[in-house]
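Researcher: Next entry in the queue.
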Amino acid sequence: MSENPSSPAVTIWFDPVCPFSWNTARWLKAVADKTGMSVEWRLMSLAVLNEGREMPPKQQSRMHDSRRVGRLMAAIRDQYGNAGLATAYFAFAERYFDRSEPVDDGLIQQVLDAVKSWDVTVDVLSDSSWDELVRRSHQAGQDALGETGGSPILRIDGHAFFGPVLTATPDPQVVETMFEAVAALAAIPQFAQLQRPRGG
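Model: Structure for this entry, 200 residues:
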């Protein structure tokens, strides 16, 4: 994606309603803003991932949002490309996560206004014809990972993995250092997993 030959090829598959993906996305954007690297933004779907599973009501509601907002983001990416999807996602997530706004017509219209969309409307949330595009994008992320994985999936120079799972956006002074560390680990074929308690 990057025009700079020295810049890494970075792709993130994310579900728009996943809070951990939101932290990872803000981290990647901070790195991109500092370094000029490009990020390819792709959809995955927790609704697809969890099809057929019994879930508590709160999670069922999140899966409902996942399916509806996935349709919106798929339509925007189809019409306005990678940059349009990124703009839409950040406009959505700032309201959905940071302001705890519900997925309603008002929120969706603000997202559409952010990308200056006249072709996509709020009706897309109930338009199941977009589900197949979401499903294909989701499967591409699973294929890149090589097994079933949640949101986000990150690929750096052809090396894909689940995560990183972030409990918050890293401090600005360490975002590049963290990216370099993640990229270095991703490039080592023998490296499989590193985990610590979320309060650590």
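Model: The mean pLDDT is 93.
Researcher: Noted, moving on.
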